[in-house]
Amino acid sequence: xxxxxxxxxxxxxxxxxxxxxxxxxxxxxxxxxxxxxxxxxxxxxxxxxxxxxxxxxxxxxxxxxxxxxxxxxxxxxxxxxxxxxxxxxxxxxxxxxxxxxxxxxxxxxxxxxxxxxxxxxxxxxxxxxxxxxxxxxxxxxxxxxxxxxxxxxxxxxxxxxxxxxxxxxxxxxxxxxxxxxxxxxxxxxxxxxxxxxxxxxxxxxxxxxxxxxxxxxxxxxxxxxxxxxxxxxxxxxxxxxxxxxxxxxxxxxxxxxxxxxxxxxxxxxxxxxxxxxxxxxxxxxxxxxxxxxxxxxxxxxxxxxxxxxxxxxxxxxxxxxxxxxxxxxxxxxxxxxxxxxxxxxxxxxxxxxxxxxxxxxxxxxxxxxxxxxxxxxxxxxxxxxxxx
Length: 388
Ligand code: CTP
Prior knowledge:
binds cytidine-5'-triphosphate; single chain; 8-stranded mixed β-sheet; 33% helix; alpha/beta
C-alpha cells in the first residue's frame, strides 16, 4: 500500500532495472517485483495484473515500449499487462526530442491515443546529456495529480478499442488563461488583483486528462505546471492578449479564467517613482485595456469554437448576480459564462468554488460548492456538448 493509500504493483522492464533495482521497487511497493512472465507462474501474473488494475501508468514511457504497445507486442510482463488491462492507461513519454518527433513515434502515439490511452505531452527542458528540448518527463507530482484525477473520473480512456471510451477532448486544442495580470507603474510597482490561478490550472489539468492538447496562458501564477500542458507565461493584460489571440487561431475552445486588469497606468515610469519632498502623493492616470474575451468572441478565429468567460459578480442596486451575469454574457458575446458570487471575496485562493454556468443558448447549470477540479469538469462537459 502506498503513502496515498493506493495499492501499487510495480512492473519494471528489464531496461528499467538497469536504473533502479528490483529490491527498491519491492521495498517501496511492499510486493514482489518481476519483469518477465515466468515468475510466480501459478498466479498467472501476465493477465491478472492488468485485469485487476484500475489504472495503468507507464512512466517514463520509452519510444520502444510505446511502439510495442501500439502494435500489441507482448514479450515481457509490462507489455502483457498493457494487453490485458481494461482500465484507463496513461503513458508519460520521456526521450530525446529527435525520438519524440520521429514519424514512427508520432504514428505510435497517434495509435495509442486513438484507442483511448492518455499520452501525456512531455515537458520541454534539460534532457540526459547536454541536450535540451521537448522530451522531459513531467514532474512526478504533476503526473500523480493527473493520475488521481483520471482515477476519480474513471470513465476517461480505456485500453480496449471501444470508441465510446475515448477521452472526450481527444484531438481538440484548448486554450485556458489563468491568474491575474500586473500593470506596472514603474520597474518595481504594479496594480494587481487577488486571482490565484487555481481555477485556471484545474481547467488545464482536467482538459489534459480528457485528452486535449492544452495551451495554458498563465499570468503571475505560482503553482506547479500541470502534466502535459504547454505553458505560456505572461505578466500584463497586453501580453495576455497577444498570447491568447495567437493560441486561439487553432483552438477548438478557449476558457478565459484569468483576471486581466481592466485598466493600466497610462504612463509607466522608467525609473522608480520617488516620494515628493513636499509630501504630495502622485496622481495616477489609467487607460482601459482591451477586452480579450469580447475580442475573441466577436472575431471567432475558428468557426465552431466554444468560448467561455468567467464573471466575478457581487450584485448591486442595478441587479442580482444572475441579472448582471446574463447582461455580461450578451455583452461579451461568448458561448458560456461561469458566474461566481464573490461577495465577501470567498473564492480567491480557495480550493473550492461554487458557480452557475450560463449558456448563450439559455442554458443554466448550477454547480454546488465543490472542488475547483469538479467545476472544471462540469465546464468541459458543457464545452464538449457544444463542440461540433
Ligand atoms: N476579461 C478579458 N479582458 C479584460 C477583462 C476581462 O478577457 N480586459 C475576461 C475575463 O477573463 C473573464 C471575463 O472577461 O472571463 C469577465 O471579466 P470581468 O472583469 O468580470 O468583466 P468586465 O467586462 O470587466 O465587467 P465589469 O464591468 O463587471 O468589470
